[in-house]
């Protein structure tokens, strides 16, 4: 495989990914603020957060589930991200050690 | 776009130096195993900058390279960025596209999620998006480079950090989002659909389809956002 072929693929894939990232921003300029699409986008983040976490917990197994729950509860109580992450990561490591 | 927002985002995203660094390291080791040189691997992580797209195209690596199939796979797995970009336009509507081009180049799931959450708390600020994107990009590209520079084993806590920290970090954003919810049904729908999609269809679609279904439920039960 030639270096030039590999470089070409990397640039094409990079351009494709950037087009997806910038495309939504550019296309949304033609969207009405009071339209259905705009309302959908305003309501979407919280639901996408949950879907992201649910998928992550599934792929992360028991350690991921325990760690995420502990991080969430700690954040709700302390409102400090570092505390929540430390507690969550500690719980995940402990769970992983116990389970193995 | 403010300097305060940039700093806030930069500090908030510092944990991603670790998680993205570990994930980038794993990706770099995979590239190394494939026989790619360090410049190619680093360029891949820098320009494509998408774990999903990179993992998918890695699995398609063959000689000759199936470029068209790789592009289609990239579009399919990264279509969620269209939604994210459109949502950012809602937040930063007054900002000219040219002022946000760099931030969009570095747009990632986590930086978008964090920016959305921060906009609810402190108001929309494109500086936050750029600030939160930088540690993530440094971690990802730096991790890929580290795979070639140091003979590190990707097991134990390092692998666990790469796998779990992003999910845990997004979980810490949930309390600030709950105040916007009027009932648990949309979130329950999002979670159940995401789990089903992740289990039976394709994990890379679980966030988009699950979150989309939950948002539809939100739209049915609310008359105003």
Keywords:
A: mainly alpha; 2 domains; 0% strand; B: 225 residues; mainly alpha; globular
What does this protein structure show overall?
The complex is a heterodimer of chains A (100) and B (225). By secondary structure, chain A is mainly α. Helix content of chain A is 87%, strand content 0%. Chain A folds into two domains: 30 residues; 59 residues, no CATH class. In chain B, helix 2 packs parallel to helix 4 and helix 2 packs across helix 10. The mean pLDDT of chain B is 84. Classes of the chains: A mainly alpha (100), B mainly alpha (225). The interface between A and B is large, with 71 and 90 residues.
Structure classification of chain B? mainly alpha
Number of helices of chain A: 3
Note the beta-strand portion of chain A: under 5%
* Rg of chain A, Å, rounded: 20 Å
Run of helices and strands of chain A? HHH
Specify the helix fraction band of chain A.
Answer: over 70%
Largest sheet of chain B: none
Structural class of chain A: mainly alpha
- The amount of beta strand of chain B, in percent, is under 5%
What's the number of extended β-strand segments of chain A? 0
How many helical elements of chain B? 13
Distance between the termini of chain A: 42 Å
Q: Biggest β-sheet of chain A: count, sense, barrel?
A: none
Task: Note the gap between the termini of chain B.
Answer: 24 Å
What is the molecular shape of chain B?
globular
Listing every helix as H and every strand as E from the N terminus to the C terminus, the arrangement of chain B reads HHHHHHHHHHHHH
**Poorly predicted ranges of chain A (pLDDT <50, ≥5 residues)?**
none
Radius of gyration of chain B (CA) equals: 18 Å
